[in-house]
Amino acid sequence: MTAVDVTREEGQGSGDDRRRAFATNWAWALRRAGTPPLTADETELRLAGAVGRLIEITSSEPFDAAPAATVGAALVGTGFAEPVALGESIRLLAAEFPAVLAAEPAPAPTDVPARLAAVSAEFATGFAAATRERAFTAQSDAQRALRASEARFRAVLAGAPAGIALATPDGQLTDVNDGLANLLGLPVSTLVGRRLVEFLVPEHRAGLEEAYDHLRTSEVPRVRIERRLARPGGEETWLSLGLSLVADESGVPRWLTALVEDVTEQRATRLALLHGSAHDRLTGLINRDAFVERLTAIVRERGVERVGLCYLDVDGFKVFNDSLGHPAGDELLVALAERLRSAAVGALVARLGDDEFGVLLTGTTGIADVELVAAEITRALAAPFTIGDSRLTLSAGIGLVEHAAVDADAADLIRAAELTMYRAKAEGRGSRAVYDPHRNEQQIARYALSTSMPAALERDEFVVEFQPLVGLADGRVRGAEALVRWRHRELGLLSPKRFVGLAEETGAIVPIGRRVLQLACRQAARWRIDDDPAPYASVNLAVSQFRDPGLVDDVVRVLEETGLEPGRLQLELAAGTVAAANAAPLRRLSALGVRLAVDDVGAGWANLGLLRELPVDVLKLSGGLVQRLTGAEPSEAESQILESLVTLGHALDLQVVAEGIETVEQHDRLRALGCDTGQGWYFAPALAPDDFIRYLPGSPAVASR
C-alpha cells in the first residue's frame, strides 16, 4: 500500500474525496508502524468512521474536544495500541487534517489550529487512558510490554509539535516534551519535578491552582484556561492550558495531562475584534452600545450613588461636512473627539451618532458638577480647529442630566439627556439645557411623534389634500397644491406644522415626501375639465429631498406608475433654500417637462439673480406679502414691491402665483397687477381628493364656491 497525497491545493477534490484519502493515509501509517491486527480494507473502513467523528468534533458549535478521547480509545480497542500509533495519528492530525476540514461543504472554523490542538490532546488522553487500562488488566508479559510502550510513548511526546506534559494530580511534572520546553525556554531535564504554576506571572498563579482544585474536587473532567507566561524583560506571552485528569479503574485520579500552546497572536486578534465591536473606528471612542452597557452596569452594581450625563450635538456639522468634504469632516470629528477627552478628564466619552457625543460622569454630587464639565466642553470647542487650509470654530447643543444611580434605567437617562439636548438646540447655537421633567414633556411628545413616523408610513397614515390654484383672469382651475396631513391613530388629523419640522430633523421627510409625490400624481391623473387643459399637481419638496440622489429616478418612476404627463407635475422649492439647491437634478427634471416653482418669495428675498440660472417656471409670492397689500395700513411701498415682483417674474418669462388670497380686494388688486394665478381661502380651503374632483367641473371656480 502506498500513501495517498492529501495535501493538494485548496479547491481540488470534494469533501468525501479528502475524507477517504485521509483515512487511507492514516491506515497506511498505522500499518507501517506495527503489525496490523486488521486487513487493509478493514482498517480503512474503521478509520473512515473515525475521520467523520473527528470532523464532527472539530466543527462542533459550541466547540467541545472531549469526545475526541473516545476516538483515541477506540483506536486502542481496534488493536493499534502502540505509542507509535498515537504519534503517527497526532502527526497526521497536525499536518493533513486541516486540508480535510477545508474541503468540507460547511465553512471551517476560524480557530482551526487551536481546535486541532485541543482535539489532539483529548485524543492522546483517551489513547493513554485506554492503553493504561489494558496494561492494568493484562498479564505479566503485557505489563512488561506496557513499560516498553510507556518508554516509546515518552519518545513520541518528545517529538510532538505542541507542548504536552504529564503530571501528578497536584500539578508536579513527570514527563514533558520538547514542545513545552521550547515554550518555557528551558531544557526538558530542568522541568521534571517542577510545577507549571512556577512559570506564570505571579498574578496568574492562583488561577491555575484553582483549576487544579476544580479538576480534583468536581466531576468536570477537563479545564481550559489562558494565563500569561513570565518572561525576562516583561515580554508578553499568553499560554492556553488544556488540563485533563486520567483516573485508574477505580476512579482515583492518577495523572494530569496538559496541552500547552502559545496563543499570544490569537488573543491579540480576539481582543482587537472585541475592541472594534465596542469602539467607533474613526474616533476611537466607545460606541453607543458600549456606552449604554457601561451605564447599565454602573446603575446595577450600586457602587456609585449618582451619575451625570452630557449629551451633545455639534451645531451645523452637516454644513461643514458638505462644504469641506467627508475626508475633512472625518478629520474634524477625530480632532473633536480628542478635545472632548481633554475637556472631560476622568469621564467616559462616547460617540453616540454621526455628530452626537455623550459624556458619563460618576460620583457626582449635583447638577453643578455636570455643568462644570459642559462649560469646559463649550470652551474646548470654541478654540479654532485647523482642518487643511480652513480654521473652524464649533459649538454644540448640550443636554445635561444628573440623577441618582440606584434603580435608574440607563436607556431612560440617555433619552432624557438626548431630549434635553434637543431643547438646548432649539434655544440657539452653543446652548446648554438642564433636564427638567416638566419642560421635557413636550420634547417627549415630539420624540414619540418622530419615532412613530416610519410605522405611520407603513400604515399609510399620511394623506394629501388639495388647495386649488385658480387663474385670476378667468377664474378657471389651473392646478392644485398638494398639502400633506397625518391621520394619526391616536391624535387625529395633524397639520404639517405638527410634524414636517420633525421629519426634516430626523430625515423622515424624504420617504414622506416620496409618498406625497406618489399620492398627488395618482390623484392628478384622475383630474379632467371639459374644454380646458387638465389641472396640474404642485408638490412641495424639502431641501433634503432635492439633495437626495434618487430624486429624479423617483419622479420618473412615479410618473410612469401613475400615467401622469410630466407637464402636469409642478415641484416647489422654498425660496429660503434655493441657494443651497443642487442645479443638476433641477435641470434634469426640467428636461423631462416637469414644472419647477420657487415658493414663498417675499420682499426681502435676496436671491432673485438665481432665477436666471435655474430652470424655474413659476414664482409664488408669499401669503404674508399679499396680506400686507390690504392690511390695516397698506403702504404704497408694499404695493410697489409686489408690482415689481410680478413685473420681474413676467420679464423672466415666469408665471406668477399669489398665495394667501382671502378677500375680494386682494383678488382684484392682484389681478390688476397682472398676477397670473391665485391660491387661498377666497377660492377654497384644502380639499379632500374627492371633494377637489367635485370642485372641478363646469364653471369658474369663484362662481362655484
Low-confidence stretches: 1-12, 699-705
What's the architecture of the largest domain, going by CATH?
Answer: Alpha-Beta Barrel
The geometry reads as: elongated
The strand order across the widest sheet is 13-14-16-17-18-19-20-21
Number of domains: 4
The H-level CATH homologous superfamily of the largest domain, spelled out, is EAL domain
Tell me the radius of gyration: 40 Å
Biggest sheet statistics: 8 strands, mixed, barrel
| Portion of residues within helices | 40-55%
Which secondary-structure class do the elements indicate? alpha/beta
Alpha-carbon distance between the termini? 104 Å
For the secondary structure, the number of strands is 21
Global mean pLDDT? 84
Give me the CATH fold name of the largest domain.
TIM Barrel
Strand content: 15-25%
CATH class of the largest domain equals Alpha Beta
DSSP summary: helix tally? 27
Task: Give structural notes.
It contains 27 helices and 21 strands. The radius of gyration is 40 Å and the shape is elongated. Residues 1-12 and 699-705 have low confidence and may be disordered. An eight-stranded mixed barrel has the order 13-14-16-17-18-19-20-21, surrounded by five helices. It has a five-stranded antiparallel β-sheet with strand order 2-1-5-4-3, sandwiched between helices. The protein has a five-stranded mixed β-sheet with strand order 7-8-6-11-12, with helices on both faces. The protein is of the alpha/beta class and 705 residues long. The protein is 48% helix and 18% strand. The protein folds into four domains: 1-160, no CATH class; 162-276, 2-Layer Sandwich (Beta-Lactamase); 279-449, 2-Layer Sandwich (Alpha-Beta Plaits), CATH 3.30.70; 452-692, TIM Barrel. α2 (40-59) runs antiparallel to α3 (68-78) and α4 runs antiparallel to α6 (112-137).
